[in-house]
Write a structure and sequence with these properties.
single chain; 51 residues; mainly alpha; 2 strands; globular
């Protein structure tokens, strides 16, 4: 998933996702100069955010 797709999935602005991905632990990986995230990894991350 691209940064745009992750932002839409999380219902957050793209600027928030980009500015907070490290501190929030969003499971991005750098692919060249782009950030990418596997859908399954993002779903697991979302599940861990729920109390």
């Amino acid at each position: 998933m691209s940064l745009d797709e992750v932002a839409r999935h999380l219902a957050k602005p793209k600027s928030w996702v980009y500015g907070n991905w490290r501190s929030q632990g969003i499971p991005f990986r750098k692919v060249g100069s782009a950030l990418r995230c596997r859908p399954g990894d993002l779903d697991k991350w979302i599940d861990r955010q729920m109390p």
